[in-house]
Design goal:
By secondary structure, the protein is an alpha/beta fold. The chain has one domain (about 90-340): Dihydropteroate synthase-like (TIM Barrel, Alpha-Beta Barrel). The protein contains 11 helices and 10 strands. Strands 8-7-6-5-4-3-10-9 form an 8-stranded parallel sheet. A two-stranded antiparallel sheet has the order 1-2. It starts with 20 loop residues before the first strand and ends with a helix.
Length: about 350
């Protein structure tokens, strides 16, 4: 991806005291198709990661490496650097809302939000995704105005950005995204994939920032092939982006696990994630604490850590380049261990 002009956020590795070296070649992916073994976590996809002198794929050990930016090094191209690492980037969820499905109200106070952001940084987070409107992936979300979102963000957003880790703004409203970008936020995250607010695509194009385009639906339809629906949705989003002048290399796709989907469809989206490779774009997956987990193993959101990790490991094996999670340390540990085991094959 191209550089993020004007962004002052600093890029941290996966934990300051836990830098890794990258040595030796990773195994090549087998051809895709039914019955193929999952590829090693973090294995490069030539369509998404063209050769780079700063990215070296290989096995992990405990010694430092010049291919991973040192703590505090901004790097010439923040997001591309993250995508070229051997493991998926980890995005931490920070909701400054009173009603989010998993942690509503916990971090709405500015001091609590900043405390949580610092904790995620200590755990090794790569991106902090800040949201001020609950977009509950099921029912019960209460629509809020842009003014409501801004009132929640203004006391805390600049302070989070100042901590030095790249920040994304989770909002479907162009006015909110514009404010966030003015505060130094680096990435826009639109849960309606540029299809809800007509001003979003022109804003993103004008600012030249990366955009996460998420699949969504107004209602659930158990009868549809959800992956076919996702592809059609993304084609519309990419057309909107192209007409607005958003550079294709600035776009990340998100299948929207849980949004407008039955539990079965969410699992299908994960199982068939590789079908999104047709777009040649990096994919973000956020399955953290989602309800489909409880359809397999009954649990409340706070009790879905193991299921979240299982889903995210599958997503990483199927090519996800960013994992969005409430549980940064646990997710990062799982990704590292899985990668270390697979590298011994």
């Amino acid at each position: 991806m191209k550089s993020l002009e004007g962004c002052t956020a600093k890029l941290l590795p996966h934990g300051e005291s836990r830098a890794v070296a990258l040595r030796g070649p990773l195994k090549k992916r087998p051809p895709q198709g039914d019955g193929q073994r999952a590829v090693p976590i973090g294995a490069p996809n030539p369509a998404l990661n063209p050769p780079s002198s700063t990215a070296k794929a290989g096995r992990m050990n405990a010694s430092p490496s010049p291919s991973v930016p040192s703590a505090g090094s901004p790097g010439p191209d923040m997001l591309r650097t993250l995508l070229e690492r051997p493991l998926p980037a980890v995005m931490g969820v920070l909701n400054v809302t009173p009603d989010s499905f998993s942690d509503g109200g916990k971090f709405i106070a500015p001091e609590e939000a900043l405390k949580q952001a610092r904790a995620m940084i200590a755990d090794g987070v790569d991106i902090i995704d800040v949201g001020a409107e609950s977009t509950r992936p099921y029912t019960g979300a209460k629509a809020v105005t842009a003014a409501d979102e801004l009132a929640r963000l203004k006391p805390v957003l600049a302070g989070i950005v100042a901590l030095g880790v790249p920040v994304s703004i989770d909002s479907m409203k162009a006015d909110v995204v514009a404010f966030a970008l003015d505060q130094g936020v680096a990435i826009a995250n639109d849960v309606w994939g540029l299809q809800r607010d007509a001003a979003m695509a022109p804003l993103v194009a004008a600012r030249g920032v990366p955009i996460i385009v998420m699949h969504n639906r107004d209602s659930v339809d158990p009868a549809i092939d959800i992956v076919v629906d996702m592809k059609a949705f993304f084609l519309r989003s990419l057309d909107i982006a192209a007409k607005a002048g958003i550079a294709r290399e600035k776009i990340v796709l998100d299948p929207g696990i849980g949004f407008g989907k039955t539990a079965e469809q969410s699992m299908t989206a994960l199982a068939r994630l590789r079908e999104l490779d047709v777009f040649g774009l990096p994919v973000l997956v956020g399955a953290s604490r989602k309800r489909f987990i409880a359809s397999v193993s009954p649990s409340e959101p706070s009790g879905r850590l193991a299921g979240s990790i299982a889903a995210h490991l599958i997503a990483a094996q199927h090519g996800a380049k960013i994992i969005r999670t409430h549980d940064v340390a646990e997710t990062l540990q799982a990704l590292r261990v899985a990668n270390a085991i697979e590298s011994k094959q």
